[in-house]
TrEMBL record:
The chain crosses the membrane at residues 24-42, 62-80, 92-109, 115-138, 150-173, 185-203, 215-231, 243-262, 283-306, 318-337, 349-369, 381-400, 421-442, 454-479. GO terms for molecular function: transmembrane transporter activity. It is found in: Cell membrane. It is a multi-pass membrane protein. It comes from Brevibacillus reuszeri. Keywords: Membrane, Transmembrane, Transmembrane helix, Transport. Its main location: membrane. InterPro entries: MFS (IPR011701), MFS_dom (IPR020846), MFS_trans_sf (IPR036259). Pfam families: MFS_1 (PF07690). Residues 26-484 form the Major facilitator superfamily (MFS) profile domain. This is MFS transporter. The lineage of its organism: Bacteria, Bacillati, Bacillota, Bacilli, Bacillales. It comes from the Bacteria. GO terms for cellular component: plasma membrane.
Length: 490
């Protein structure tokens, strides 16, 4: 989803008189990899139930196709920015886009769900090499007075990828060229990725700084701990929650505690920790990050269960599913474009309204299901999803700047990295947890469950999504009301 880069100005940033006069042409190229990743993410979201059905995959396998990508992306984001500093951002972009495109090709060719999960994990690693380099190139190649416009365009591209990706995924699967079915959403990325690679030479060269200290022990503890947390949550319902699942969860907790201990010790010894945890001593940052986690848990969970209710409960095809997401995507895209100006004028109340609207919409959705749980392509549902999308754009798009505004400028780099990592982790955990709830309330397999079972499971999941959004609203109430108040607190 839309997020904004760190406000940190890098040491090698060009002076105003040395900016590249072709930088506006380069901007289109810089943003192409972001559009590639965004379209891919949401096209697969729509096609996921069809992928599960075609590959005879389990519900937990389908979760891992999504959560594996999000988890590897979240963890690798922490180090990929430093790798760009070490080896050059343009070089990392080449590697990231090449890897992403190759995995898209392999994903379209595979017929094994386990192999597809592995491919998606590697694709997440490749995607993580892309995003920090793009944000840094935007930061160093434009004048300070131009950056507001540049990052607004960046946010709009992400919003467009979200809105159009959901629609395009349904169109491609329904079009079914060469009888490829869901594989089309993977193969679509191959020519797009090649186009991006052909355009990358237009970008200015960036020289790396050479080898730097990397906190490999921190990386090990963090990756191991998060994997042993997310994987058992996705696999537990399939395996019947055996003892080894609970053992993995306990071990993940111990590894994450070890990670915190290692990072604190390195910080005290004057080393270079993977994450500077001292940033969490700032109360407002903790409150802001809590709101980030809650709103993204709600959002990713809502997308996941809505897709499954439509395609398994109501037997919608991918194109009909994409049409259901159309008003949501349009509303999100519209407020994403305007949110910066609206927040500048009205302050934090805009984000609160957005979180409140998304939460209320989830509960109103439950009410509508009691009236008519079948005909969702009608005006009440369309209006409701439009309002949900409008609210989602108001709260998520400006949230990064608001959260980073609670920390001093010297901590903005750490804050931005943590924001992106927590956002993608929320996606992985949200899907894993809402799937457990959905399956538990469904009480049947996806194939044998009746419509009434799906309505019950979907309604319970919606109530959870709404509760998370309202909890995010509560946390947002503790953040500064306006930019002036925020500056006074720093």
């Amino acid at each position: 989803m839309p997020n904004h880069p760190s406000t940190t100005v890098l040491a090698y940033e060009k002076p105003e008189q040395q900016v590249d006069p072709r930088r506006w042409y380069a901007l289109a190229v810089i943003l192409l990899p972001i559009l590639l990743n965004s379209l891919n993410t949401y096209m697969i979201q729509v096609a996921l139930p069809l992928i599960q059905d075609s590959l005879l995959a389990s519900f937990s396998d389908a979760q891992l196709i999504v959560t594996g990508f999000s988890l590897s992306l979240a963890v690798a984001l922490i180090i990929s920015g430093k790798l760009g500093d070490m080896f050059g951002k343009k070089r990392l972009l080449y590697i990231g886009v090449s890897g992403f495109t190759l995995m898209a090709l392999l994903g379209g060719l595979t017929s094994n769900p386990t192999l597809l999960i592995v491919i998606r994990i590697v694709q997440g690693l490749a995607a993580a090499l892309i995003q920090p380099q793009v944000l840094s190139l935007l930061q160093v190649n434009f004048l300070p007075r131009e950056k507001g416009l540049v990052f607004s365009i960046y946010g709009a591209i992400l919003g467009f990828g979200f809105a159009f990706g959901l629609i395009l995924g349904g169109i491609l699967v329904n079009w079914n060229p060469f009888d490829l079915g869901w594989r089309t959403v993977f193969f679509f990325n191959v020519p797009f990725g090649i186009l991006v690679l052909l355009c990358l030479p237009i970008l200015p060269e960036t020289r790396g700084r050479g080898m730097q200290s990397v906190d490999w022990s921190g990386i090990f503890f963090l990756i191991s701990g998060l994997f042993l947390l997310v994987y058992p949550l996705s696999e537990g319902q399939k395996q019947g929650w055996p003892l080894w699942i609970w053992g993995c969860l306990i071990l993940s907790l111990l590894l994450l505690l070890a990670f915190i201990s290692v990072e604190i010790r390195k910080q005290k010894q004057g080393g270079a920790p993977l994450i500077d945890l001292s940033i969490f001593k700032q109360h407002l940052f903790k409150v802001g990050m809590a709101s980030v986690v809650l709103i993204y848990l709600s959002m990713f969970s809502f997308f996941f269960v809505l897709t499954y209710y439509l395609q398994f409960g109501l037997h919608y095809d991918a194109q009909a599913t994409s049409l259901m997401f159309l008003p949501l995507g349009c509303g999100f895209f519209l407020t994403s474009l305007m949110s910066s100006r609206i927040v500048q004028k009205w302050g934090m109340v805009v984000l609160k309204i957005g979180a409140l609207a998304t939460g209320i919409c989830c509960f109103l959705f439950i009410v509508l299901l009691q009236v008519d749980a079948v005909h969702l392509l009608q005006s009440p549902y369309i209006v409701l999803l439009l309002v949900y999308g409008l609210g989602l754009g108001l709260v998520t798009t400006p949230l990064t700047r608001v959260v980073l505004g609670t920390v001093p400028l010297k901590d903005a780099g750490t804050g931005s990295g943590l924001f992106n990592t927590f956002m993608y982790l929320s996606g992985a955990l949200g899907i894993a947890l809402i799937s457990i709830l959905f399956s538990a309330v469904l009480r049947q397999s996806l194939a044998s469950a009746a419509l009434s079972d799906y309505v019950r499971a979907f309604s319970t999941s919606l109530a959870t999504c709404g509760g998370l959004a309202l909890a995010a609203f509560v946390f947002l109430c503790f953040l500064p009301e306006s930019k002036d108040q925020l500056n006074e607190r720093q």
